[in-house]
Amino acid sequence: MNKDAMSKEEEKKVTDRINELYHKKEKEGLTPEEEQERKELHKKFLTNFRATFKQDVENMVIIDKNGKEVTSERAKRAQRKKGLRKD
What we know:
Elements (H helix, E strand, L loop, with lengths): L7 H20 L4 H28 L13 H9 L6
């Protein structure tokens, strides 16, 4: 797992809290402390999203309609580095 990626439980807690703060902001507004918390959680969420997206792309194997692998060399290098490829 990527060092920046959160567990599913932690990701859910962050997302739930972001949503909670969003609804409070819409209804009554946020205190400066809550606004700062919202910004930090949003940053944490984006860091996690980028890390897991990168990991998914690096682990992807692309096969064309003829059954030939056409995975990019960059992805292959990343997969070799992680020990996911034997070629």
